[in-house]
Specification:
- Chain B: Belongs to the bacterial solute-binding protein 5 family.
- Chain B: InterPro entries: Peptide/Ni-bd (IPR030678), SBP_5 (IPR039424), SBP_5_CS (IPR023765), SBP_5_dom (IPR000914).
- Chain B: Keywords: Signal, Transport.
- The complex is a heterodimer of chains A (307) and B (534).
- With 307 residues, chain A is mostly helical.
- Chain A is flat.
- Chain B has 534 residues and is an alpha+beta fold.
- Chain B has two domains: 245 residues, Dipeptide-binding Protein, domain 1, CATH 3.90.76.10; 218 residues, Dipeptide-binding Protein, domain 3.
- The chains are: A mainly alpha (307), B alpha+beta (534).
- Chains A and B meet through helix 2, helix 4, helix 6, helix 10 and helix 11 of A and helix 4, helix 7, helix 14 and strand 17 of B.
Chain lengths: 307, 534
């Protein structure tokens, strides 16, 4: 197991490097640059700016400088789009926000999703099952860019209960709508996967044995069925967790949370190479990390799995 | 030399006293004087030398103050400067600065602060995107400094003493003073910048000389300013706290306005008529100095057809501007037959015969012109319209596609993201492209200079007479006939089809007073605003 983890980590580093190099080259290939704008800058002004940011260097030199700064000094450079800030500052401002509402959304999605899925499976083909399936399909088909403005209309305009957007770490009333908007579709997916997997497990031999031995149903479900049934859910949760904590551009846009999701999309549209690279590396590293965690969890839950 | 030049200086006393909020006698003010306005996006920079956005300028105008401010009609009123004189040859401006202007840390604002700020913008090391603005002001040596051929301290701006600033231009520039309310020209605190580097614009560090100080800034969320007691006119400043709130979606912005979270928002396209009926005391439409056009690529890289002025005219005539303004935008915008916005100060549009015809007659003429140019059912004209991603641009492009179809022209719509659009515009890699230009100052040349051979001029149209008119206008006593002639040339030559002139279409809470309703530049100052008790 320990050797496996080491091996996976050894692969993670070249993976990240490849990710950095590819993103860097792809970004540079996109038409227009960070300072292309409606009123073309006089060539001399543009040259001054490019010199300041090192954009006048050959691409390989830029790439090398970038890698060196990232690896040796954890310096992701200055942002082109926000000239008063470095990329580290932009991420330090936005990431804690998405991390907060992402973690809460994750907890809500898992708790509600798994409960719904399990309930539906053990009450298979009853009204409870239909209700749970109905709710999860409803949640899945309601896109968050429809739900977000609707939430604002209902909770801010009509009821006046919640602030229509913005962010505060101290006041959870700012978190509620982003969490609902973000968690819903994940919750629906988790519920469906849990239900399907649970139904399969409930029909298997070891459950029949457990029941035949006269174990109470509660024990059968919690001790014998839930653990194997949760495996497919866990492989879904790894990537889902990463995309939740790195934010959603829709949630950031409609609730103006100031999170990292919108910065990511903006940086790509504005050709803010530095911020785009910084966020790509962050998301890439987290994805690799959580895929590894999922694999370790797998082995821990299912002793049949050997590495 | 300078004394010689300024001997017969023309003293320009400014029309209005420099006042903050002009609260009429007997007005009952509200107890809470807080004002919240809407931002579409994060404020990218609070450094006057690095800001490039309109929204950023709106914030900077509260935190800093330049030589002059604008009043509710857009006229210049004293800011840090109280008056100025100009030498006979129009090259040397001498500004008298008030002696009670202070930075928010209590230091006096002196002429040297402007010298430092302007040199800093021009200095290539600052890498300011708006270095071009200093060039546009025609300050002596600005071009050479930006090009790295001269030292920044050779810029034509000098502190004679703490209260006297002297600016030397290389070319007389009649609109020079009108440029002095622009954020790029604001003074900046040298000591703070040298101590803090790029971080000097953070709350707690930023030192300004405006009516407000920076109290908080959460990137992409909100920005708070508080009344600056050090400001020279603080006793006449009514609003105590201002908050700029980012709402990235226009429709959500309107919802949050209706929920009482914002005091002013933009109205989404097409909703003005409904809102004006529902809230006649809140929905406003103010002319705004931007023009929308379809630029023809007449460069070598452009299509052959567009090199024929008859084709360009026909396409322009066939655009039914009334439909675009009244059916698509619906917010008080006006059809455009000139490039210069109709509300620009002193601008008198020339007679444009096309403007007076009805659309049926224009269409007839367009058909005739196109046939004359050799296009018809046997040889249909194929053209592509490029526009950047936006619902409004798309709606207009679809409408134009239909208008041109009436001429038998096949139109391909080419929607690209913003950076691709601008990149192609600058490389003449388009046929017809959607474009908009917003004036930098309230005078017609800010529009007309665009079409000079060496102007931005994405379609690469060129006309010697036009260039000469624009050059002559810089020293002319009366620019009106020159600008009129320039517009006539544009109307005859049609380097672009002008579509409409912008309006700011906003909702403003009824108890908020002091927002300028006649300033075509859209410039406003928090210090001029106040709230009345309902």
């Amino acid at each position: 197991m320990f050797g496996y983890i080491l091996r996976r980590l050894a692969v993670a580093i070249p993976t990240l490097l490849v990710l950095i190099v590819f993103s860097f080259l792809l970004m540079q290939m996109a038409p227009g640059g960070p300072f292309t704008q409606e009123r073309a800058l006089p060539p001399q002004v543009l040259a001054n700016i490019e010199a300041k940011y090192g954009l006048d260097q050959p691409m390989l030199v830029q790439l090398w400088t970038y890698l060196r700064n990232v690896v040796f000094s954890f310096d992701f450079g200055p942002s082109f789009q926000y000239p008063d800030r470095t990329v580290n500052q932009v991420i330090a401002q936005g990431f804690p926000i998405t991390l907060t509402y992402g973690l809460v959304s994750f907890a809500v999605a898992v708790l509600v999703g798994v409960s719904l899925g399990v309930t539906a499976a053990i009450r298979h083909n009853t009204w409870l099952d239909y209700l749970a399936v109905g709710v999860s399909i409803g949640a899945q088909v309601l896109p968050n860019f429809v739900m977000a403005p609707l939430l604002v209309i209902i909770f801010t305009l009509w009821l006046g209960w919640l602030p229509g957007g913005g962010w505060s770490f101290n006041d959870p009333s700012f978190w509620i709508m982003p969490v609902i908007a973000l968690a819903t579709s994940y919750m629906a997916s988790i519920a469906r996967i849990t239900r399907a997997s649970m139904l399969e497990v409930l029909g298997s031999n070891h459950i029949r044995t457990a029941r035949a031995k006269g174990l109470p149903e509660r024990k059968v479900i919690l001790r014998h069925a839930l653990k194997p049934a949760i495996l497919p859910v866990i492989s879904y949760l790894g990537p889902a967790f990463v995309s939740m904590i790195t934010g959603s551009v829709v949630v950031d846009m409609y609730f103006s949370t100031g999170g990292i999701g919108k910065s990511f999309v903006d940086s790509a549209l504005n050709r803010d190479y530095a911020v785009m690279m910084g966020v790509t590396i962050l998301i890439g590293a987290l994805t690799i990390l959580f895929n590894l965690l999922v694999d370790i969890l797998y082995a821990w839950i299912d002793p049949k799995i050997r590495y | 030399m300078k004394h010689f030049l300024t001997t017969s200086a023309l003293a320009l006393m400014l029309s209005l006293p420099a006042v903050a909020a002009q609260v009429p006698e007997g007005t009952k003010l509200a107890d809470s004087q807080e004002y919240t306005w809407w931002l579409l996006d994060a404020i990218k920079s609070l450094d006057p030398a690095k800001n490039t956005d309109v929204e950023g300028s709106d914030v900077l105008r509260q935190l800093f103050e330049g030589l002059y401010n604008e009043d509710e009609t857009g006229a210049m009123v004293p800011g840090v400067a109280t008056e100025h004189s100009v030498s006979d040859d129009g090259l040397v401006y001498t500004f008298k600065l008030r002696d009670d202007a202070k930075w928010s840390n209590g230091d006096p604002v002196v002429a040297g602060d402007f010298v430092y700020a302007w040199q800093r913008v021009a200095n290539p090391e600052t890498a300011s995107e708006y270095a071009w603005f200093i060039e546009l002001m025609n300050i002596a040596n600005s071009k050479e400094i930006v090009a790295g051929e001269a030292a920044p301290d050779t810029l034509g701006v000098k502190a004679i003493d703490d209260q006297t600033l002297e600016v030397t231009l290389h070319t007389p520039t009649p609109y020079f003073v009108k440029m002095l309310a622009h954020a790029t020209t604001f003074p900046v605190p040298q000591k703070v910048i040298e101590a803090e580097g790029d971080n000097w614009t953070q709350p707690g560090k930023l030192v300004g000389n405006g009516a407000y100080t920076l109290a908080g800034h959460n990137l992409g969320v909100d920005l708070t300013v508080e009344k600056n007691d050090q400001y020279w006119d603080a006793e006449n400043t009514v609003i105590t706290k201002g908050k700029a709130v980012t709402v990235n979606d226009v429709n959500v912005g309107l919802t949050r306005y209706q929920a009482g979270e914002l005091d002013r928002v933009d109205i989404p396209a097409g909703q003005y008529p409904r809102l004006e009926q529902e809230y006649p005391d809140q929905a406003i439409s103010i002319p705004y100095a931007c023009s929308y056009a379809y630029i023809y690529n007449v460069s070598d890289k452009g299509p052959e057809a567009l090199k024929d002025v008859r084709v360009r005219k026909a396409l322009s005539l066939a655009i039914d501007r009334d439909i675009i303004v009244e059916q698509v935008l619906q917010g008080g915008q006006r059809p455009a037959w000139t490039w210069t916005h109709w509300a620009i100060e002193g601008f008198q549009p020339p007679a444009t015969p096309e403007a007076d015809k009805d659309q049926a007659a224009r269409l007839e003429e367009a058909k005739a012109l196109l046939a004359e140019a050799g296009y018809g059912p046997d040889k249909p004209l194929n053209i592509s319209i490029q526009y950047n991603t936006s619902e409004d641009h798309k709606k207009i492009a679809v409408a134009v596609q239909q208008f041109w179809k009436q001429l038998g022209v096949n139109v391909t719509l080419n929607n690209v993201e913003w950076k691709v659009h601008t990149d192609r515009l600058q490389n003449q890699d388009f046929e017809v492209a959607r474009y908009a230009w917003c004036g930098d100052y309230n005078e017609a040349s800010t529009f007309l200079d665009w079409f000079r051979t060496d102007g931005y001029n994405s379609g690469k149209w060129s006309n010697a007479e036009f260039d000469k008119l624009m050059a002559d206008s810089k020293t002319a006593e009366d620019t009106t006939p020159l600008y009129q002639r320039a517009e006539e040339i544009l109307a005859d030559e049609k380097p672009a089809a002008f579509v409409y002139h912008y309006a700011n279409v906003d909702m403003i809470k009824p108890d908020v007073k002091g927002i300028p309703m006649e300033n075509v530049m859209g410039t406003w100052y928090l210090k001029d605003i106040y709230r009345t008790a309902e």
